[in-house]
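Work Package 3 committed the consortium to producing structural models of liganded targets before the mid-term review. Because experimental data for this complex are still outstanding, the team generated a predictive model from sequence and the ligand definition alone, so that downstream docking and mutagenesis planning could proceed in parallel. The input record is reproduced below exactly as it was submitted to the modelling pipeline, together with the SMILES string for zinc ion.
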Amino acid sequence: MTTIQSSAVRSTSAAATTATVKKGSKGAAVKELQTLLKQAGYYKSTLDGDFGPATDAALRKFQKDKKLAVDGVAGPKSWAALRAATAPAAPAPTTGTTATLKKGASGAAVKELQTLLKSKGYYTSTVDGSFGPATEAAVRGFQSDKKLTVDGVVGAKTWAALRATTTPPATQVLKKGSSGNAVKEVQLMLQKLGHYKLSLDGSFGPGTETAVKAFQKSKGLSQTGQVDANTLDKLRTAYNAANTGTPSTGTVPQVSDPISNQRIAQLHPKIRAKAAEFINRVERETGIKLRLASGFRSIAEQNALYAQGRTKPGSIVTNAKGGSSYHNYGLAIDVVEVRPNGSVNWNTNWSAIAKIGKEMGFEWGGDWTSIVDKPHFQMSFGKSTSQLLSMYNSGQRSGEYVNL
Ligand SMILES: [Zn+2]
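The resulting structure, written out as tokens with the ligand in place, is given here.
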């Protein structure tokens, strides 16, 4: 027992003593006791190996909390309790399942799913092993954030994303040393905004870093010099506002949700007004307040996500290459209901929302037969994604937006 415990002790002392020590004792055993009491949060003083009043008080407090005899004497029981209190927590056991789960499923795998969703803040209900609407809503929320197919079904990709120890950010953080088209796009936007004067080489060096900091300063953001999701969001909004080459079609109405206004401003100019009007109509006619959860995702950004888990480190987060989604052209939106308390509801009244969206000319992902995607609405302008991609590649575009 002693050997097992001592191997788990985070004490710097090599000796796993059980020597009885009390006020007046001195030496290595006292030092170890003080170390353990400090790790457990009971002792604040120096590790001097001298059992004085401070050590005595700390030990008594610990004994009281652990419901041991409060005698100020460190005997076998106190040592064992101290080592248990300071041992690192064992990693949670996992069944490691990759079984495909969907609404109606139940059992241990569902329990594991709910636990993972809970640990990541997506599931707030009971871990009961029963895959009901709350679990499905949590899965959809997670899939949307991770840019996975939002189908509420937990397959290998969703399992992998859920188990990833370092949760892959929805948007890759670009920083000094990063390279590629995503960096080039950032340089272009910084250049148009007057912060970047060097070449658009797609290589994130000191010049790019300085420009990012200058932009962050101008927006009152903390000057990290790194392009995280928030900085990218602000950069796109500023770029779109400044980019007179891509005027919106008509006046874009404001919607009640500020985040949505920012995302609407990043959509293809031809659908900005429609997206805003759609959200406003749904709120007016059904009382459902929608948020634009996801809109424009640049081809470079999508390719960077696609590379993750394939040619770049990390786990696979998407199956879609850049250019294969209408989102990549700013022609698709994913919406979600925001309840009055601020929580989102992926199981909203989709048929009422879809009715209005379709009246306004949107195609609805809920009508698809292969992968049903209820939050998704798009406008194709009669073009397939491959047609749009060749237009994009041949330069029939203004900035990131193809000329429609
Ligand atoms: Zn979508």
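Reviewers should note the following from the model. The two ends are 74 Å apart (CA to CA). These observations will guide the Year 2 experiments.
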